[in-house]
């Protein structure tokens, strides 16, 4: 019989292989951190129709009890990710944490409660200007402006171009006007897969991940993501590795193109979308459960 590592796909980098070996040797010190859309949930045209890939809850429930912690870090509101993920009251996930809005919000399965700061000023005012701004671009002839705007619980507002006739062209044309709108209201623009999100500055997935790793005293971290917003978490894992911690960077290659190629280039391990992430999580659980 081979070693536990041999049950799993091998990272391409030396640092990734060392990170995986440490995670498997000392799982009680390890955190597995996961993005939601594109990593745990397949990309779909309507954000409200996204769901955790079948097998995610079962794979996480097998893995979580073997590790220090499992955390989901997402641009979605925490409540949305918990609902779309089916994470509430899931057996085996009683210590799951979901950090929503890039870390501004936190849901703990242990309490079922969400901690969230007051809604940031500027979001409501920026959102009120969006319909007219989007209509003026002329890009929404075949799609609805209302369907393009995701309210995100009043803490951010996202503009989706996936359902326009020219998703990339519309995305490119909107970058400058949305940056100006965000600036006028003290917000920043977070670009993603055919989405431009106006949100408050001051937090990102890297800040959220580092703070969580320190909170639980982890010595190893595996982070899996698929989009530009995950690059901050990649940088955080690189910084932790520079401090001597173990780290593995996983890219879920949910869809090719869409602007997130840098993630695949920087990853230690590329897996084919949420199905590949489920297989990786299941493989980790099986390797760790072996006597
Ligand atoms: O941090 P994440 O969990 O990856 O969330 C980032 C954004 O994901 C969502 O948009 C993406 O998924 C949609 C559903 O599959 C898709 O239609 C869209 O094109 C993608 O960009 C979400 O709607 C955004 O609010 C998140 O910020």
UniProtKB/TrEMBL annotation:
Superkingdom of the source species: Bacteria
EC number assigned by the record: 3.1.3.12
Pathway: Glycan biosynthesis; trehalose biosynthesis
Presence of keyword Cell division: no
Segments passing through the bilayer: none
Reaction catalysed by this enzyme: alpha,alpha-trehalose 6-phosphate + H2O = alpha,alpha-trehalose + phosphate
InterPro entries: HAD-like_sf, HAD_sf, OTSB-like, Trehalose_PPase
Record's keyword terms, sorted: Hydrolase, Magnesium, Metal-binding
Family in the record: Belongs to the trehalose phosphatase family.
Function (record text): Removes the phosphate from trehalose 6-phosphate to produce free trehalose.
Protein name: Trehalose 6-phosphate phosphatase
Protein species of origin: Streptomyces olivaceiscleroticus
């Amino acid at each position: 019989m081979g070693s536990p590592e041999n049950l799993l796909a091998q990272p391409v980098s030396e640092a990734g292989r060392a990170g995986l070996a440490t995670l498997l040797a000392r799982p009680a010190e390890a955190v597995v951190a996961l993005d939601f859309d594109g990593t745990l949930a397949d990309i779909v045209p309507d954000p409200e129709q996204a769901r955790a890939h079948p097998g995610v809850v079962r794979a996480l429930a097998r893995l979580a009890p073997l590790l220090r912690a499992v955390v989901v870090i997402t641009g979605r509101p925490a409540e949305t990710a918990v609902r779309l993920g089916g994470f509430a009251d899931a057996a085996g996930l009683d210590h799951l944490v979901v950090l929503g809005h890039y870390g501004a919000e936190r849901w703990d399965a242990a309490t079922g409660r969400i901690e969230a700061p007051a809604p940031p000023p500027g979001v409501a005012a920026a959102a009120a200007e969006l319909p007219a701004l989007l209509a003026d671009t002329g890009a929404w002839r075949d799609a609805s402006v209302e369907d393009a705007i995701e309210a995100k619980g009043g803490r951010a507002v996202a503009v989706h171009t996936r359902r326009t006739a020219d998703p990339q062209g519309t995305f490119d044309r909107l970058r400058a006007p949305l940056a100006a709108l965000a600036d006028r209201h003290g917000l920043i623009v977070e670009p993603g897969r055919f989405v431009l999100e106006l949100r408050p500055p001051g937090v990102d997935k890297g800040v959220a991940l580092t703070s969580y790793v320190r909170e639980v005293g982890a010595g190893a971290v595996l982070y899996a993501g698929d989009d530009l917003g995950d690059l901050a978490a990649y940088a955080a894992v690189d910084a932790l590795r520079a401090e001597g911690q173990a780290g593995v960077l996983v890219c879920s290659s949910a869809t090719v193109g869409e602007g997130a190629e840098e993630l695949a280039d920087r990853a230690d391990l590329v897996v084919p979308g949420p199905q590949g992430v489920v297989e990786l999580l299941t493989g980790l659980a099986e390797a760790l459960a072996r006597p």
